[in-house]
Write a structure and sequence with these properties.
two-stranded antiparallel ribbon; 2 helices; mainly alpha
Length: 106
């Protein structure tokens, strides 16, 4: 079950469904971890918010600049349509609008 590590296929640890070794009772258990690298950084060397405030300002500006043309035109069109509809409604409900559009109905 050993063998050299093959960069393409990895390290053989057993057939499908039979990974690892059997224990004293005959059931399979997981293989022992191998070739696991762990890294750590000292607590006094960590700077979790290093440059966060500066990056937040420029990142927000960059995101705003890239999204403004997707967001603003629909709002401008919706505002123009609502403004036209409100003005048209006020006109149609006024005396000159009723005379022009509604005729002489009573």
């Amino acid at each position: 079950m050993g063998g050299a590590v093959d960069p393409k296929n990895g390290h053989f640890i057993g057939n499908w469904g039979e990974f690892g070794k059997t224990d004293a009772f005959g059931s399979y258990r997981l293989p022992d971890p191998q070739r696991i690298a762990t890294y750590a950084l000292s607590s006094n060397r960590q700077r979790p918010f290093a440059g966060a405030f500066n990056a937040a300002i420029f990142n927000t500006f960059r995101r705003f600049r890239h999204q403004v043309l997707y967001v603003v035109p629909p709002f401008v069109i919706a505002y123009a349509a609502m403004n036209w509809a409100v003005e048209r409604n006020h006109y149609l409900n006024s005396k000159p609008g009723r005379m022009l559009e509604g005729g002489h109905e009573e």
